[in-house]
Amino acid sequence: MGGMMIRNWRIGTAVLAVFGALFGASLSLAQSSGTIEGVVKDPSGAAIGGATVEISYAVSGFQRTTQTGSDGNFRITNVPFNTYHAVITATGFASYTQDIDVRSAVPVTLQIGLKLGTAATSVTVEANAGDLVETESTFHTDVDRGLFDRLPLESASSSFTSLVTMVSPGAAADSNGLMHGLGDHAENSYSVDGQPFTDQFSKVFSNQLPSDAIQSLEVISGAPPAEYGDKTSLVVKVTTRSGLGQAKPAGTVKASYGSYGTANVGFDFAYGGQKWGNFVSVNGLQSGRFLDPPEFTVLHDKGNQQNFFDRVDYQFNQADSIHLNFQYTRSWFQTPNTFDNLRAFNGNPAGDTDERSKIGTFNIAPTYTRLISPHAVYNFGVFVRRDQYNYYPSNNPFADLGPINSETIAQNRKLTNAGLRSDISYVNGIHNIKAGVVYQQTFLTENDRFGIVDPTLVPNLADVNGNPLNCLDVNGQPIPGTPCATLAAIDLTGGGGLYTPGSQFTFHGHTDVKELALYLQDTITKGSWSFNLGLRGDIYRGLSSKSEAEPRLGIAYNIKPTNTVLRVSYARTLETPFNENLIVATVGCNVDVIAALIPCVPANSPTGFRNEFHAGFQQAFGKHLVVDAEYLWKYTHNSFDFSVLGNTPITFPIVWHNSKIPGFALRASVPDYHGFTALVVMSSVAARYYPPQVGGLGVTVGQSGSVFRIDHDEKFNQTTHLQYQPWKRGPWVGFNWRYDSGLVAGSVPDFATALQFGGDGQAAIGLFCAGPSGQRIMATLTAPLSNDPTSCGPTPTGTGATRVSIPAAGTENDDKNPPRIAPRHLFDLAVGDDNLFHGDRYKWSLRFTVINLTNKVALYNFLSTFSGTHFVSPRAYTTELGFHF
């Protein structure tokens, strides 16, 4: 059975009917930014030309300046939603200050009258304590390019998720750009200028948005408003860079080179006028350490990536405008080897493993906007995004044999997400109303080809309890109708010569997943109170079906005398399966070959639902420190995770019966103070999952029937970023300190289990024991530890591991005391000068970055059921030269 086709019912006509009923001919796409416009006049009512208008939000680092035209008008576009402090100055007039709240796509219009006064010679935007807090019920983190542009990032090939992990509380760092948001596995969604992304964003699944294209980020860690659904542990709102209003062309050309032959060349360019703008970013990367490898030593880890991003804005008139985002990214990279994959260590005559991947991603998203009145904006947009992932095995399939994989596998997988998104925003008085509808259809195609290359696999088949299966006859031939006969057909070795070699099996699946969402929300601001009331309805039709009504509620109260904001919120959300390899995970157990190869649960991928509660506060201490903290509790029925088929790219979604995730998150910010800024984020999240596994392919850990901590549970992590520039035209320094207490590592429950690993696995975790003379003996690649008297002895003492925290014998508990990756401290440093020769129009910049300053040898994970073993980056140096015009 080499292929299958899976189809679902269609609801396109119903969607069009809903569109028409809601908005008639005018529809809108939710935006992540707004507009501030107005006119500046003197006491007589005459327009003031050349006045300087500057807005800022000290916490995020956002700052924007413009000047009024001869008619006194000004307009600042692409302003992320926030509260801003504005200062307006003009020669011969007293300065004017005002706080401005930008919360929707409806333009904020100001009428500003300046009084006669002392001539202004400079503009100083300085926030007070009240400007540092927001009367918002949703816990979130705002970061502008002015702050993160100097942030040392650990990964060049996944800079976007590295950035989010560094600046937002609750994100636990994992390998290859993966981040666990508040105890969930990749339950994160992204909104790029209003376009939703809910699929995997790790660099082994998809190509990310280049960080050069990002103007600002808002990371929502609290209960999501009604406009956000699906995967909402973290919601990352991205505002991209624009050339609108950029009358004088500006851009950057830069090149960098560093450790592991890592080279990056790129440029960005912005140009436009009052009615149009274009921003383009192009860059290319190549590296000898493209992925996080399973060894501290880099083996077979080359890769390259090319990015192209273009944003076009055009305003037809005062009411109508269009916005277009376009991205194309291609990446190619090798699958890193372990020492066990090398011929010199495993004796494989087929040679070293040489597996590779290629990912091509394109995205196009046009948006039409119409200003209906001073209080209302309609938008309408469409989007198409596609990821094509190709996995190539070694030229000799038998080279793919390794200690934990018995198959050679090839994959060609496509994910195409297309949809319509529209909303209407209305702002008047105490109300900020938004109503919207989103329809998207995700087309999935999976083509997998695999065969067995382990000559001992079929002859040594066992049941789920480890008991041998009697499915070979006295001559060593498979008995018809048994699992041996099924797998012998794809055993390329013929059981080591026992029977005729088989051929590779081909799996083909196609389906399309349809989702319709409607929402209505209103933020009511009255005095010191803010109420966020919302209702969302989701209809999901994929390989399973579910409809869910999802109320959202948030309340915030601003105690203005003490600059304190108290808040509580609640959200109910529909949880949908991951799309990557969803087909094989759902129907694979119905395929004889796959069912014989992997122990199976009933084949399905059910949806789930979540109830989450949040309570927190925001406190400003003077005008130089603001602290934001929140406690959260999430209960999920049908909770999602990932598992993997051996050491292969077939990573598929699985479903647990339920999960409970309590914890806290905190952020502390020091806005710019004489050139010094600081950002501290921290969190502690427990991820407690409850068996049984109720969906997905295979049966993984946690089948004992009791609660267990899943491998994205982390007791505590924190990131501190410090930045200092003594004077504006001088050099600067940026410093990161990241502490992680360690994710759960369930494969090492005790020292006895660790002794069963080979030399490579023992050396990876830094296994040791006390020798006969009391000295510490460390496991090495060629000399693993054992119970032999010449090694650790039959009753080992002084046991442990340097990179994994192994519970003492008899104390391991999957819930209360699971094994973990050992705690680690990582330090990064960047120093630079953005204007080396003090130019006005043309500037040269130079930057030097060191990642993992102390060269700490540490793990992200070890034998993870999802991704295996990965080390953090060793110390790496990068030098970057830039030309700015």
Low-confidence stretches: 1-30, 119-123
Class from helix and strand fractions? mainly beta
Taken from the alpha-carbon principal axes, the silhouette is globular
- The pLDDT mean sits at 89
Distance between the termini: 61 Å
- The proportion of residues forming helix, as a percent range, comes to under 10%
Radius of gyration: 29 Å
Percentage beta strand: over 45%
- Major pleated sheet: 22 strands, antiparallel, barrel
Helix count from the secondary structure assignment? 10
Oligomer: single chain
Kindly state the number of beta strands: 45
Textual characterization of the structure:
The longest helix is centred in the first third of the chain and has 12 residues. The protein has ten helices and 45 strands. The protein starts with 11 loop residues before the first helix and ends with a strand. A hairpin with a 3-residue loop joins strand 25 and strand 26. With 885 residues, the protein is mainly β.
